[in-house]
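Title: Prediction job returns without error message
Component: structure pipeline
Severity: low
Priority: P3
Assignee: unassigned

Description:
Job completed but the reporter wants confirmation the result is attached to the right record. Sequence as submitted:
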Amino acid sequence: MDKLIDKLIGTRWFMKITSLILAMLLFTSVYDPQKEVSNINVPSGEDYEILSDIPVKSYYDTDNLVVRGVPETVKVTLQGPKNLLQPAKAQRNFEVYVDLANAEIGTKRVPLEIRNLSDKLKATIDPAYVNVTIQEKITKEFKVEVEFDKTLLEEGYISEPPEAEPKSIKITGAKDVIDKISYVKATVNIRGAIRETVRREARVQVLDRDMNKLDVLLEHEMVDVIIPVKSLSKTVPINVIEKGSPPENIKIDSITTDIKEAKIFGAQDVLDRTDSVRVEVDVSRINEDTELSLPVIISEGINEVNPKVIRVTIQTSENQQEGDQETEADENKTFSNLPISLSGLPNQYEAEVLSPNNGASLTVTGKSEMIKQLKASDFLVFLDLTNLEAGDHDVKINVNGPSNVLWSLATDVAKVTITQKEA
């Protein structure tokens, strides 16, 4: 057996294998995978700890300057007595900082420093120096542009220019960053088709010309957004259509409506081919002077009509039997460009009639002899503006005139704008 062992020891391969085994045993006894490898030479009785993610504080004139280049965290290696090292590691009550209190505008290399650490502990900061850029801080006001996907508007609907509240915000940052601002946008994310006005909050984004987000401070990160949405519309006349025949003893003298025009809403191509709407009057059931509330009938493709219902007045008379005495026939007379008076407007306002802009048009019906005697001055056309405030309004047109005639307006509603008088 001894000879066999001597023979093995004498071989070159035995010595290589033995050396490898001893090297592995030595490595496992020294290597600690939980502790970073370092070339720090630690004196007897001392130890070291490597601490990561230590925050860095910057001291500078924050009111007037912007500093870039200071890292958020650094790595700190502490070395010293174990009884001081462990509390420093656990409490981390020291501070790593950059002192730029007296720094001037520009780019410079500055050291990272540490304080509130026992003088018996040695600290090494990684990195030890950093390149920082110091710039003037400026504040500038920018208008907020509202964006949304217009392809979501349902057919037949349009949007007016959207607005943000506040309309503009102040943005603060380094001068070179502020100079790069090309877009200040509030983008509204909407799901589904849009067919009514949208109101919601939106986050503000500040972007350069290449649509990159910029590092700035915003006065308002969120703004209220309104996107006015309305249907395409058109104003058309209301036609009266008679259905059926009146009873034998009844004659239909006239059919008049309280409103002559209606506003219709729909897609542009439908509006283009629609010239009117209608009300249908079944005269077969009319036996006397009658007032009816009838629906306004629209053609296919029209989304909505305003008004939906109008008042129809039907004037009748009895058919004369053969041999009856003839009666005097009714006659019509139209007065155009009648002035429109304004009443009830508070003193602090002034008003202007936008339409009809040439005055009112009034058609009068009555006995021939009476009609011949009428003059335009026999009628007072006026608007009651009581309790109305500044802005645009649709106001009913009122008429005072002789009681023994009938009249109808070409347009029953006037458009009026009311403004505050200048002081």
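Comment from assignee: result matches the submitted record. Residues 45 and 81 are 6 Å apart (CA to CA).
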